[in-house]
Amino acid sequence: MDNVKQIEKDFRELLTEQNAYREAITLIHWDMRTKIPKKGVEQRSEVVGFLSEKLHQIETSDKMKYFIDILKDNTEDEILKKTIEDCEETYERNRKIPHNEFREYVMLQSKSESVWQEARENNDFSLFSPYLEKLVEFNKRFAGYWGYENNIYDALLHNYEPGVTTETLDRVFPDLRKSLTSLLERIKQSTSKPDPGILTGFFPKADQEAFSLAVLQEMGYDFTSGRLDETIHPFAIALNQNDVRVTTRFDEEDFRMAVFGTIHEGGHALYEQNISPQLAGTPLSTGTSMGIHESQSLFWENFVARKEAFWERHYDTFLKYAPEQFHKMPLNQFYRAVNEVKPSLIRIEADELTYSLHIMIRYELEKALINGEITVDELPGLWNEKMKEYLGVEPPTDREGVLQDIHWSSGDFGYFPSYALGYMYAAQFHNTLKKEINFDDHLLNGRFNEVREWLTRNIHQHGKMKKPLQIIEEVTGEKLNPDHLVTYLTSKYSKIYDF
Amino acid sequence: MDNVKQIEKDFRELLTEQNAYREAITLIHWDMRTKIPKKGVEQRSEVVGFLSEKLHQIETSDKMKYFIDILKDNTEDEILKKTIEDCEETYERNRKIPHNEFREYVMLQSKSESVWQEARENNDFSLFSPYLEKLVEFNKRFAGYWGYENNIYDALLHNYEPGVTTETLDRVFPDLRKSLTSLLERIKQSTSKPDPGILTGFFPKADQEAFSLAVLQEMGYDFTSGRLDETIHPFAIALNQNDVRVTTRFDEEDFRMAVFGTIHEGGHALYEQNISPQLAGTPLSTGTSMGIHESQSLFWENFVARKEAFWERHYDTFLKYAPEQFHKMPLNQFYRAVNEVKPSLIRIEADELTYSLHIMIRYELEKALINGEITVDELPGLWNEKMKEYLGVEPPTDREGVLQDIHWSSGDFGYFPSYALGYMYAAQFHNTLKKEINFDDHLLNGRFNEVREWLTRNIHQHGKMKKPLQIIEEVTGEKLNPDHLVTYLTSKYSKIYDF
């Protein structure tokens, strides 16, 4: 027993080392995406490579294995038990890949990303396809090493959404698609359409920033544990529990980019800022999955900041910063405009309704790729066909089509479904939360604190102590159910589009 | 021979590791001084502690010793030879200190800094004095471990200004003091005094920043290898040769803080940006000493940016950003005002002439402390006496006296002289440079590039390949000579103060 206590102590020391590397690497990533001068990048990449290798060495070390083997059945500390589970999974998954294959893959990833950028710039898929083929091959091989029950793609999905399988997705996605496309049809046929044109026009960056900061503050984002910076691709990043940063992008012709972007990233940040301090320093001190993380950002972006009640409360504040043109605009016209639905070519510009359709296309294609049912060369054509079928629009070139996302170039197969899961999770949480607290009333009165506390109590605090589907079931009392998203969207858009 | 080549290769790999830790630590320091949210500091300190320990382990490793022993006499690569010398010195100096004493000292340092802050806030030297006593004790002991020829203080001085000894300082400082105080006397008696009051008044931060950036640009600071940020205590920092950052502080009531501060730090940054790329990745890729570094910042701050010719060239640019009040101000009135001399209590607010007097006081006191000639308790009284004697002003409390500087609280004994050496070095470089290029003419025409190139050719590029006094002698053809500073100041102030 005394011996176990000592081993636990030694194990915690190893976690501290692991954590130090992770935190240093994360700071470098934040800096590389926000501040680093152009010429500093090359040398900094070497540094991050070195530190990542060190981290990888610890994760797969014999020392780690020793702690796992002993503490797995002997520790009585619940947090340590889960920590050991997490470390074991990382250890096993990493050890299953031969070291030389892993190195080769890391080099391929970094090369592929820059080739993809070039291919996108030149609108030439053929530049990228040989790399994509290799990436697919590696991922198939890794999936084989990791193992799976029914579908090889499940082994990859597991990296981003443990517990969710193709079986689940193939159950919910087709129904969801049917509902979304029929809703989209009614919206298209509506004669009462919002006019998003009224939202564009010069809106100085400083004023957008001031309003974004005011909303972040009200959401309960803790500025003594975070900060907002400018970047090209907005993100939220947790360096540690008390340093969770948000970035945003300003478009002086369209305030929506910065305002909704900041709120979205703020939702991610609230998750990381409110994980239980008891988990600090363990690998459990982060969001439990990409999908649950996305549910938090989408909750704030859509279920809060695109709601009528939110704007009833905040329109005056908004007008304090907004340029002239908004001052004569009735609230309802503004509210409808920020909720326009319009099928578009680019995923990251998609609205709440069509977004999930973009995801399904990617899911179907990458699943087929990994299962060897289609080839890389067939991708651009299939992409365009599906866009036409699901969204009714067709990319004029691959740049607006198959080349638009970075994910595949980084080898991130299995990642995309998390985005659509995030929408469904958020809607399901929203449905439960509405029954437990007077949500609209809280929004009208700016009592975001109680909303944030509900999310913290039910989701944030647990970090990786609970798996995604476990959280869904415990919080909402049912399994993943896409109906909540459909009901929510139907009710929302029938009012906006008057059908 | 082939064997040596292989060992050189392995050694370079160790240098790469060492460098990766150093770069990660430096980024954390930059972030902690500019961006980190308050609550993130505690955990980040742990991370920096861990990484510093790793770096220290490499520097003092048996592996390092192995490379030193073999390559010292066998490498034919000049850069490697110097690198080995540098690594050997670091190895020897660190190994001479018993590990437990070093750990104890590091903890004392970090504790002392916060106690000093508290003492300064409460204006209570007695809080700080027990810590200062311990710091002095440790430094005496370390100096003993390191060894010295004549004066124990030389062993500490060596950390900041290798090659310079108390013998040198005791030769140059008294003469310099005599000259400076007599010059100060004449200035005091002058009836034609500049009026610095005309310089203060509201000057928006954004405009100060725009002008500072314009000057940095013209100095040849490379913004693709650097950036300017805001901070409380301005500094320049080299993460790598292609990422050398500058920070500044804005006082909207007094533009001098930001403008001269940025130029000063820009001078440090130019040094680090222009070290030969051949030295990249070795410990030689940095300024050769604190004094030479300071000579570069002071050169740009005083010998460029406080010169008449500089303002003749830049006054129009300045007026583009400056508020109304400056638009009716004759250039000469402005020039004289930015060159006011006035004995003051605070070192970092001192002018070009009195600054070195502040340094001499600190030097004399810390040398006496380390030599056991005075006690810590006597410090405040002696400080005030010397202030009165050298500068004619007396601190009303210790906050404006002995408690003003952070250096002693970090155990940095032997550091202060570098500042005064920097002034003397800069004046000596200036004297040589004037003979070789048409300096005033270059300033008048904004041809800073040729000035910067002269400094790069003679100083910057060498990094630590040359020792400070070696550079002085090679560049100026003579030993350290304080007369150049005196001549320069006399000529400058006799014009400004009309004597």
TrEMBL record, chains A, B:
Enzyme class, UniProt record, top EC level: hydrolase
UniProt cross-references to Pfam families, sorted A to Z: Peptidase_M32
CDD domains listed in its UniProt record: M32_Taq
EC identifiers of the protein: 3.4.17.19
InterPro entries: Peptidase_M32_Taq
Presence of keyword Protease: yes
SUPFAM superfamilies: Metalloproteases ('zincins'), catalytic domain
Molecular-function GO term, any one: carboxypeptidase activity
Functional description taken from the UniProt entry: Broad specificity carboxypetidase that releases amino acids sequentially from the C-terminus, including neutral, aromatic, polar and basic residues.
Family that this chain belongs to: Belongs to the peptidase M32 family.
Protein name: Metal-dependent carboxypeptidase
Species of provenance: Virgibacillus kekensis
Upper lineage: Bacteria, Bacillati, Bacillota, Bacilli, Bacillales
